[in-house]
Design goal:
Largest sheet: 5 strands, parallel
CATH topology of the largest domain: Rossmann fold
Mean pLDDT: 80
Number of domains: 2
Strand content: 5-15%
Number of strands: 11
Distance between the termini: 34 Å
CATH architecture of the largest domain: 3-Layer(aba) Sandwich
Low-confidence stretches: 1-13
Shape: globular
Length: about 350
């Protein structure tokens, strides 16, 4: 006797497809680790966003090798990498490209020719995106959403695959143009990079002060990356898992019907929109397949919750005064929102009783 899950796994390809993606990810991690010390969680989150065809906002203080990490990932993926340093004088045409008048030497005729900007690459590092005016930010975010740029009324398709990894410095905010919430919502993930631990920092110093400079070898090409993205979307998700993801998202919204932690009503100004639910499911699919599973569980949803939700939960003045962040709100959501329609605290008590 077969059930719906068995049918889904057969259609998906089961462990074979999951094994292919796992092997590809293992090869990538091996090459990236030749250059980057530690930060495995950050690397995995970047890979998950790329395998989901999503973009990521990377937040960390200077000196944490954000640029090196992203360029190394692009090198291991055999993708064209482009770094754009965002500055207050950067104009939209500086990143998208511009039309120039060129003269044909033989005929003497003149014509407009579009000269492509640095956006025409596969992996874009938008360094310190909040240091450029909103007009240029909007040009980048339009390209992220539409996957093309427009010049002189003509659309120019961006190369495939196309990923934007934007960075922000959280400690220096003078002279910046913070991204509005609607623009932040375009990013699938908000990834936090912290300081390395002592052992990793020792290895970093040893590696970077020696004469030999390590490089990553290309292990995946464009076609393989496209295939991985297709496989990720084929991963089956049961309805109860989708409903759990939806409960987490809807619980962030003040005034929404349903169960939610008291911290939301007290400290949240705006909650996550429908795009958060879509990205939660996609991220959980990629997380599950990288873990070797052929289907998504609530634990995969929980693993993806923080990078998906942290930039979509906007706290109010009371939260700032009391030192409450979106991370605290997410912690309360994961602790209090039921997985199977039951109170999580009650479920923990039942699990304890059953183990006796």
């Amino acid at each position: 006797m077969t059930n719906d899950t068995d049918t889904e796994l057969t259609a998906f390809g089961g462990s074979r497809a999951a094994g292919e993606v796992q092997q590809a990810c293992h090869q990538l991690r091996t090459q990236i680790s030749k250059v980057i010390v530690g930060q495995e969680k950050v690397v995995d989150q970047i890979l998950v966003s790329m395998f989901c065809r999503g973009h990521a906002l990377v937040i960390g203080v200077p000196g944490l090798a954000k640029t090196l990490m992203i360029s190394t990932i692009a090198q291991a993926l055999s993708l064209r990498f482009s770094r754009i340093q965002f500055t207050p004088d950067l104009m939209p045409s500086d990143i998208t490209g511009t039309e120039l008048i060129q003269e044909d030497k033989h005929s003497g005729t003149r014509e407009l020719r579009f000269v492509k900007g640095p956006l025409f690459a596969n992996v874009i590092l938008a360094d310190e995106i909040n240091r450029t005016p909103p007009k240029t930010q909007s040009a980048l975010l339009e390209a992220m959403q539409e996957r093309h740029v427009t010049a002189g009324g003509v659309q120019h398709e961006l190369p495939k695959p196309f990923f934007v990894l934007a960075t922000q410095n959280p400690i220096e905010q003078e002279g910046t143009y913070p991204l509005p919430e609607a623009q932040l919502d375009r990013f699938m993930f908000s990834i936090l990079i912290g300081y390395p631990d002592e052992d990793d920092e020792v290895r970093i110093i040893q590696r970077t002060t020696a004469g030999h400079e390590a490089t990553a070898e290309a292990v995946l090409g464009r076609k393989e990356i496209q295939r991985v993205a297709e496989v990720v979307r084929e991963v089956p998700v049961a309805e109860h898992v989708i409903r759990y993801a939806l409960r987490l998202v809807r619980a962030t919204r003040v005034g929404e019907d349903g169960v939610r932690p008291s911290i939301v009503d007290q400290y949240v100004r705006w909650g996550a929109g429908p795009r958060a639910g879509q990205f939660l499911i996609l991220a959980a699919k990629a997380t599950s397949i990288l873990a070797g599973s052929a289907h998504v569980t609530p634990e995969h949803i929980r693993a993806a919750a923080r990078p998906v939700l942290r930039h979509r939960i906007i706290t109010n003045f009371n939260a700032e005064a009391d030192g409450v962040s979106s991370e605290d709100v997410i912690t309360a959501l994961l602790d209090e929102i039921p997985i199977e329609g039951t109170d999580r605290t009650t479920q923990k008590q039942m699990d304890t009783v059953l183990k006796r």
